[in-house]
C-alpha cells in the first residue's frame, strides 16, 4: 500500500494541484497545451478507430447494410413525397379553377393514352356514374383539351384537340376572325378556311367561337405560330400551338353543364 | 395452360401499350407491341391459336381507340393468316427473316390505317404520314426480339 507522508502531501502535491487548477482556468495555457497534444491524440484516435474497425468489422458491415437499406427507403419516400407535392399543387390549381369557373365541372384523372400513333386520345377514370356523356367538353385550367367521344360506367374516352377527327369552330381573340381548328397529329393544330384578307398574325390567341355546337364560347385553344397559304391557293391557314401540354396531361376537368 | 399464359401476355402488353411512357417515345411515336405479339404467336403456336390471339390483339387495340370501325381486329386477323401462309412457303427460322416480317407487317398495318384515316377526310401532312409509317414500324421492329423471347418462353 502506497503511503504518502503528510509533509509531501502538503508541500508538493497540493501546490501542484492548485497551480494546475489555476492554469486550467487560463485559456492561453489551455489552448497551447491542447495544440501540443492534438497531433498525437488524433494519431492515436486514428489508430484506435482502425483497430476497432478491424475488430468490429462484421458488426459494422451489418450496420452499414441496414443503414443503406434505410437510406434507400428514405430516398424512395422522398421521391413519393415530391410526387405528392407536385400532385397537390396540380390538384390545387384544378380546384381553384373549378371554384372560380361558372361552369359545372368534374375532375378526372388520365389513366391511359391512345395505343397507336394515328389518333390522339385519352382514357379518364370518370364515366356515366359521374354524369359524363359523349359530346361533353374536356378542359384544364390552361385551356381546351378535347371532347368525350365514348363513356362507360367508370371510364370515358377523350378525343384530344390534336386528333385529325377533331374540328373546333374558333375565332382569333383580337380580330374575331373565324376559322376551323383541327388536329394534325403533330405538335401544332391547324386553323383553316381563313380568307385572304383575314386579320391574323403570329402570336394571336385563338379561342372557341360561339358558333360551336359543342364547345362553350371563349375557351382558350392556342396561339398562332405560323401562317401559310393552302395548296389550292384560295384560303390561308394558321398553325396554332395548343396552350395545354397535351402530351403530359395527368388530370382534366369535364364540363358537365 | 399455354393459352392462359398467352392471354396473360396479351393483357400485360395491352396495359404497357396503353400506359407507354411519353419519354420513351421516339419522334412522338410509340411501338406497336400488340402487332409484334400477333406476329410472334404465328411462329410459336399452331394456326388456330395464332389466329385467335391475333384477332384478340387487334380487338384489344381497337377497344381503346376512339374510332368506331374495328380496323385492327380485321387487319390483325388478315396479317396472322398471311404470315402463317408465308411461313409455309419460306423458312422463317432465321432471326432476321422474322424481324423483316414484323417490319413489313407494321408498315402494311400503318399504311392501311393511315390511308383509311386520309380517305375518311382527315388532313394528315405527308411528313406526319411518313413519320407514322416508317418510324413507328422501325421502332416496332427494334422491340420485336423482346416480345419474341417472351412468346418463345411461353411456347416452350
Please give the CATH class of the largest domain in chain A.
Mainly Beta
Report the end-to-end length of chain A measured between terminal Cα atoms.
Answer: 102 Å
Helix content of chain A: 25-40%
**What is the level-2 CATH architecture name of the largest domain in chain A?**
Beta Barrel
Distance between the termini of chain B: 12 Å
In this structure, how is the largest beta sheet of chain B organized? none
Counting DSSP E segments of at least 2 residues, the number of strands of chain A comes to 12
CATH topology of the largest domain in chain A: Thrombin, subunit H
Percent range for helical residues of chain B?
Answer: over 70%
Q: What do we call the CATH homologous superfamily of the largest domain in chain A? A: Rod shape-determining protein MreC, domain 1
Share in β-strands of chain A: 25-35%
Structure description:
The complex is a heterodimer of chains A (257) and B (156). By secondary structure, chain A is of the alpha+beta class. Chain A has 2 domains: 91 residues; 154 residues, Beta Barrel (Thrombin, subunit H). Helices cover 36% and strands 28% of the residues of chain A. Chain A contains 3 helices and 12 strands. In chain A, the strands form 2 sheets. In chain A, strands 1-2-5-4-3-12 form a 6-stranded antiparallel barrel. In chain A, strands 6-7-8-11-10-9 form a 6-stranded antiparallel beta barrel. In chain A, a hairpin with a 4-residue loop joins strand 4 and strand 5. Chain B is mostly helical and 156 residues long. Chain B has 6 helices and no strands. In chain B, helix 2 packs antiparallel against helix 3. The interface between A and B is medium-sized, with 26 and 28 residues.
Amino acid at each position: 500500500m502506497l503511503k504518502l507522508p503528510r509533509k509531501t502531501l502538503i508541500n508538493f502535491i497540493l501546490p501542484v494541484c492548485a497551480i494546475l487548477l489555476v492554469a486550467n482556468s487560463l485559456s492561453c495555457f489551455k489552448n497551447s497545451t491542447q495544440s501540443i497534444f492534438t497531433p498525437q491524440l488524433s494519431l492515436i484516435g486514428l489508430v484506435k478507430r482502425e483497430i476497432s474497425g478491424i475488430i468490429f468489422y462484421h458488426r459494422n458491415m451489418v450496420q452499414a447494410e441496414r443503414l443503406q437499406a434505410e437510406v434507400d427507403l428514405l430516398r424512395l419516400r422522398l421521391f413519393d413525397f415530391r410526387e405528392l407535392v407536385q400532385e397537390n399543387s396540380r390538384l390545387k390549381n384544378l380546384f381553384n379553377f373549378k371554384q372560380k369557373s361558372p361552369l359545372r365541372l368534374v375532375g378526372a384523372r388520365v389513366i391511359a393514352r391512345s395505343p397507336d400513333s394515328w389518333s390522339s386520345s385519352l382514357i379518364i377514370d370518370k364515366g356515366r356514374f359521374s354524369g359524363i356523356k359523349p359530346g361533353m367538353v374536356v378542359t384544364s385550367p390552361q385551356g381546351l383539351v378535347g371532347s368525350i367521344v365514348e363513356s362507360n360506367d367508370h371510364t370515358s374516352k377523350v378525343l384530344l384537340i390534336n386528333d385529325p377527327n377533331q374540328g373546333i369552330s374558333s375565332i382569333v381573340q383580337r380580330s374575331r376572325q373565324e376559322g376551323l381548328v383541327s388536329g394534325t397529329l403533330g405538335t401544332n393544330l391547324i386553323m383553316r378556311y381563313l380568307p385572304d384578307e383575314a386579320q391574323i398574325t403570329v402570336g394571336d390567341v385563338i379561342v372557341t367561337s360561339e358558333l360551336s355546337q359543342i364547345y362553350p364560347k371563349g375557351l382558350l385553344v392556342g396561339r398562332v405560330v405560323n401562317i401559310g397559304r393552302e395548296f389550292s391557293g384560295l384560303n390561308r391557314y394558321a398553325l396554332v400551338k395548343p396552350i395545354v401540354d397535351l402530351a403530359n396531361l395527368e388530370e382534366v376537368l369535364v364540363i358537365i353543364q | 395452360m399455354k393459352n392462359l399464359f398467352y392471354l396473360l401476355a396479351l393483357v400485360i402488353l395491352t396495359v404497357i401499350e396503353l400506359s407507354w411512357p411519353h419519354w420513351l417515345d421516339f419522334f412522338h411515336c410509340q411501338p406497336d407491341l400488340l402487332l409484334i405479339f400477333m406476329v410472334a404467336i404465328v411462329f410459336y403456336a399452331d394456326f388456330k391459336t395464332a389466329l385467335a390471339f391475333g384477332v384478340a390483339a387487334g380487338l384489344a387495340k381497337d377497344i381503346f381507340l376512339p374510332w368506331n370501325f374495328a380496323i385492327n381486329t380485321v387487319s390483325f386477323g388478315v396479317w396472322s393468316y398471311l404470315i402463317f401462309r408465308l411461313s409455309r412457303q419460306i423458312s422463317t427460322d432465321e432471326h432476321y427473316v422474322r424481324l423483316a416480317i414484323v417490319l413489313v407487317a407494321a408498315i402494311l398495318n400503318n399504311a392501311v390505317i393511315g390511308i383509311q384515316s386520309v380517305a375518311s377526310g382527315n388532313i394528315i401532312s405527308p411528313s406526319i404520314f411518313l413519320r407514322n409509317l416508317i418510324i413507328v414500324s422501325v421502332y416496332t421492329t427494334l422491340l420485336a426480339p423482346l416480345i419474341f423471347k417472351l412468346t418463345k418462353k411461353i411456347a416452350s
